[in-house]
Design a protein that fits this description.
By secondary structure, this protein is an alpha+beta fold. It has two domains: 87 residues, 2-Layer Sandwich (Alpha-Beta Plaits); 46 residues, no CATH class. Helix content is 37%, strand content 20%. It contains six helices and four strands. It has a four-stranded antiparallel sheet with strand order 2-3-1-4.
């Protein structure tokens, strides 16, 4: 079964009935069972969300139906995300292409640049500025093409 994490915020109605929160968590466990899933853990949290639930469901449709049924009771608003463990993540991670002749993995071709962004607008250590590194190469290549001199 797939694992899901639900971030839950109380509505005004849910806050008013705070004293029944343990009972409502048990009712949520019974509700997920109606959709073919099971609840794994619940956490009451401080911060942006009041509650975090971890549950399993047979598919995305069942998880969505459970989240809608839970929210329709009027006590909570939910944000549900599918979660992957390390083994599942490793199975679905993209693999680098392999050269059929040499059986070696293919790296990035020469001249391909991966841009790195940061919140503060600085280039990361080891990164190169496009204007400083490549503009000269492109200008000289354009100059050679215009003059008809071909490759270097």
């Amino acid at each position: 079964m797939a694992t899901y994490i639900t971030l839950i915020s109380w509505t005004d109605q849910g806050i008013k009935a705070f004293s029944k929160t343990i009972d409502r968590a048990e009712a949520a466990s019974q509700l997920v069972a109606k959709f073919g899933g099971n609840s794994k853990q619940y956490y009451w949290t401080m911060g942006a969300y009041d509650f975090v639930g971890v549950f399993e469901a047979p598919d995305d449709e069942s998880a969505t139906a459970y989240a809608l049924a839970l929210s329709s009771l009027g006590n909570v608003r939910t944000t549900t995300m599918r979660a992957f463990d390390a083994a599942r993540c490793a199975r679905s991670s993209p693999r680098r292409p392999v050269n059929a002749r040499t059986r070696r993995t293919i790296g990035y071709p020469r001249g391909v640049i991966i841009l790195r962004c940061s919140r503060f607008g600085k280039l990361g250590q080891g990164s190169r500025s496009i204007s400083g590194d490549l503009s000269g190469r492109f200008q000289s290549a354009a100059r050679r093409a215009a003059l008809g001199t071909g490759a270097r």
